[in-house]
Specification:
alpha/beta; Immunoglobulin-like; 3-stranded mixed beta sheet; 7 strands
Length: 136
């Protein structure tokens, strides 16, 4: 024999159904956050220690002055056959103070985020001098 459920039973079942639907998300999926765009490409400005740099003096680093723009990656490359370094004469450009020793073919990069001008030189070959300018 079938009996009609009591009112408290129906209320409890309704509350349970609401709880289950809420706990399961109600069958809807929240929208996904959009994928952020990729970071912008960083332009690389190459600066060279030229072949035969020891005998080139003020042109050992190529164009005088070496000019790059703020936000660029400055990559120093040693195109000579002997070891060199490039050191700043001031703290005007704190992102770049020295390349450290660069073997022939070696390179070192810096992202320049400060504008300014400084004299540069090779500590191994002090006659190798130049100027580095970072423009806005």
């Amino acid at each position: 024999m079938w009996m009609k459920p009591s009112r408290p039973f129906v209320g409890a079942m309704t509350a349970l159904a609401i709880l289950l639907v809420t706990a399961c998300g109600g069958g809807t999926t929240p929208p996904m956050a959009p994928t952020p765009p990729p970071p912008p490409e960083i332009t690389t400005a190459n600066a060279y220690i030229l072949p035969g740099a020891v005998n080139l003096g003020a042109t050992a680093f190529g164009d005088e002055p070496v000019v790059i723009h703020k936000g660029e990656r400055m990559r120093w490359r040693n195109a000579d056959t002997v070891e060199h370094d490039v050191v700043t004469d001031s703290v005007a450009l704190p992102e770049f103070m020295t390349t450290g020793l660069l073997a022939p073919g070696g390179e070192r990069s810096f992202i320049m985020s400060t504008t300014g001008t400084t004299r540069i030189h090779c500590t191994i070959h002090p006659q190798m001098v130049g100027t580095l300018v970072v423009q806005p």
